[in-house]
Amino acid sequence: GNSVTQMEGPVTLSEEAFLTINCTYTATGYPSLFWYVQYPGEGLQLLLKATKADDKGSNKGFEATYRKETTSFHLEKGSVQVSDSAVYFCALFLKTSYDKVIFGPGTSLSVIP
Amino acid sequence: DTEVTQTPKHLVMGMTNKKSLKCEQHMGHRAMYWYKQKAKKPPELMFVYSYEKLSINESVPSRFSPECPNSSLLNLHLHALQPEDSALYLCASSQDRGFAWAFFGQGTRLTVV
Questions:
Q1: How far does the CA of residue A41 sit from the closest CA of chain B (Å)?
Q2: Which of B3, B24, B40, B53 has the highest number of chain A CBs within 10 A, making it the mutation to test binding with A?
Q3: How many CB pairs under 8 A join A and B?
Q4: Tens digits of per-residue pLDDT, B64-105?
Q5: C-alpha distances in Å from residue B51, one per residue of B7, B22, B72, B94, B97
Q6: Which residue(s) pair with A109 in the sheet?
Q7: Residue B91 to chain A, least CA–CA distance (Å)
Q8: How far apart are CA B54 and CA A95, in angstroms?
Q9: With an 8 Å Cβ cutoff, are A43 and B104 in contact?
């Protein structure tokens, strides 16, 4: 079946550290891939997306590249800030599943000064 | 206006109460969604409305009753809920069915006592 696996954390980093959150997927088809972020007490925000192999999504200093050969979409940021503390969800969408976005379990990130 | 507005932000209700959650968007989106999110878990899809018609019901108990009065509004009517229904209820909208890059509201934090 279709699924998303990501490191669950919690991940704790010092300010200005490099961030990687791993995400791999299994899909019977050619999915679009997304990262959503959920700040404490808030709803989800789309952070970035990629719709085909080798696409790089980027936003607010975060980047992720759609790697078909390794079925991965790892999230990276060169220098995290305290304000990046949140839960990050990797997700995939397949047209065959139509409206159903499949979320990973989420990775909690805490950035300390 | 790229917002999805949900009211109320917090709701405490007894198991015999009837209450409603409201969601509004003015982006011209034709698909609207209700998700349920338990603590430290990814969102779970409940309902999808497409062009004001219910298109997906993910086997949600009948004590949850959705309604889409027009293309901008989505309601979730609650009746005879159980304590395990306590969760964050998220509304989302997207341009059309099949678009995963939805905009999410801030959510309603529901507590059933």
A1: 8
A2: B40
A3: 56
A4: 999 999 999 999 999 999 999 999 999 999 987 666 678 899
A5: 22, 17, 10, 11, 9
A6: A11, A86
A7: 9
A8: 19
A9: yes
Mean pLDDT of all residues belonging to chain A: 93
Tens digit of each residue's pLDDT (9 = 90 or more) over A8-24: 889 999 999 999 999 99
**Inter-chain touch A99–B40, beta carbons under 8 Å:** no
- In whole angstroms, what is the distance from residue B111 CA to residue B113 CA? 6
Question: Between residues A9 and A60, which one has the greater pLDDT?
Answer: A60
Nearest to A50 by CA among A86, A22, A74, A84: A74
- All residues of chain A having their beta carbon less than 8 Å from the beta carbon of residue B90 are 43-44
Enter the tokens of residue A106: 């989420």
Closest CA to A90 of A100, A79, A101, A78: A101
A82 vs B96, more confident? A82
Residue B84, judged by CB atoms within 10 A of its CB (0-12, 13-18, 19+), counts as exposed
CB contact under 8 A, A99 and B48: yes
- Count of other CB atoms within 10 angstroms of residue B73: 14
Partner-chain residue, chosen from B40, B55, B104, that has the shortest CB–CB distance to A45? B104
